[in-house]
Structure prediction request, 163 residues.
Amino acid sequence: MNPRVKKNMKVRRYKTGEEEALWSLLYETAHSVNSKDYSPAQIDAWAPCEKDSFQWANRLKGTNPFVAEENGELIGFAELENNGHIDCFYAAHNWQGKGVGSALLRAIEAEASSQGISSLFAEASITAKGFFQNHGFSIEGEQTVSLRGERFTNYAVSKRISS
Prediction:
């Protein structure tokens, strides 16, 4: 076990009422961690100050993400779609490198296997590319995507898993 990981961390499914905390986690992570690889305009497009709370709540209800928590504090979350696509994969900015992402990925892989999904794929940010590579994902290619008028570089990544 990673010695930096707290023993009280657990991964579970999202609960209604956690929408604001998860948005704050995404926002703070993008603005503090991803800002080393993306411009301020790109970060603002990625995680804007103004959000559609109704749309965000509906998204979470639909994707039912995995949530990592430590003593009641939400420290990460990740979504797995039925086709093996991983979306919204975040560890809180102050929890980077402490096993949160690894714990979330283990939960995703277990869930995918139980659903008979044989491969996982994602669009990894420049910042997250190394994490995915270190966890057995292959880089399929660099790509440019647009969001709210900004263009971003990210990487198509994939991994075969046993189902």
The chain has a mean pLDDT of 93. The CA atoms of residues 58 and 79 lie 13 Å apart. The helical segments are 19-32, 40-46, 53-63, 100-114, 129-134.
